[in-house]
Amino acid sequence: MGRSYSPDLRVRIYGEIEQGVSRRAAARRFDVSASTSVRLAQRMAATGTLEPARQGRPPGGGKLAPHADLLIGWVEKQGEITMPELAAKLKAERGVTVHPASLSRFLLARGYSVKKNAAGKRGRSR
């Protein structure tokens, strides 16, 4: 993701526009794209502030969130289940297609990891 322009630059660009300079001229003066100055003016009109909007997806959502209890239950019950097997089971029972890597990140975020035991077999721990 790109970084937003500094609040100081945003204020200066909008100040030019407020003084009657065209949006494109203000953009040229501060060496930003014309669309940037247009969006700044639109943002000020819509929200009353020049602060940048939050970037990225809000936390806690995603495709797997509604199925968290089910997935964790499966992992607790069958600790040796692999991510492709878990993805296939989720597809069969809930109709949700998900990549095994996404399942791995989902479980890691909830404190699950794969450890080898003394026999050299993998087992899931929390």
How would you explain this protein's 3D organization?
- This protein is mostly helical.
- It folds into two domains: 7-47; 65-116.
- 52% of the residues lie in helices and 6% in strands.
- The chain contains six helices and two strands.
- The protein has helices spanning 7-18, 23-29, 34-47, 68-77, 83-94, 100-109, and strands spanning 113-116, 122-125.
- Strands 1-2 form a two-stranded antiparallel ribbon.
- A hairpin with a 5-residue loop joins strand 1 (113-116) and strand 2.
- The longest helix is centred in the first third of the chain and has 14 residues, at 34-47.
- It starts with 6 loop residues before the first helix and ends with a strand.
Instruction: Please report the number of helical segments.
Output: 6
What is the alpha-carbon Rg in Å? 25 Å
- Overall mean pLDDT stands at 88
Q: What is the number of strand segments?
A: 2
Order of helices and strands: HHHHHHEE
Protein name: Transposase
InterPro entries: Homeodomain-like_sf
Write a concise synopsis of the structure shown.
The chain is mainly alpha-helical and 126 residues long. The chain has helices spanning 7-18, 23-29, 34-47, 68-77, 83-94, 100-109, and strands at residues 113-116, 122-125. A hairpin with a 5-residue loop joins strand 1 (113-116) and strand 2 (122-125).
